[in-house]
Amino acid sequence: MAFNPINKSKASSFLFKLHNSLADVEFYITATSLPGVSLEMNTVNAPSLSYPKPGDLLTFGDLPLTILSDEGLEIWTTLFNFITVTTSRPDMIYTDIETPSFEGVMYLLTNKGNAFKKIVYHDCYVKEVSSYDLGISDDKIETFTVSIAFSYCHIEDIPE
Fold first, then answer.
1. C or N terminus of the chain, fewer CB within 10 Å?
2. Structural domains of the chain ordered from first start
3. d(CA 101, CA 96)
């Protein structure tokens, strides 16, 4: 049976999960954009003409996510810790550091909260976590932004 997350927040149409051997985290996204992709071109030189041919290198843009906050700051703290794990520290020799990457899965949800499509991002790492406003507001849903880099992705339909 396929995984089909139920939307716990009506303010969100996306669920995102990050997983590796160190940690698992899932959170709801209020806004995102699918990253762009570009194909490097090769130039073939002929005696009287140079013409472009498709290359063999795809380059993906970063995945921007606007995340719905939780009261205990657990999501922000976990994503912050993901960044600190992937950076070198003065007390470590560079060759001793293994940069942990994650598999990221974004579920696109219907207005009833059922997943209908998933996008799997491979070799993810958290590139940026925005500041978090600790002010209290009754009329505003608190969010923060994250930028995720990845090697490649694929899209799958989720059967009903």
1. N
2. 14-34+62-157 (2.30.110)
3. 16
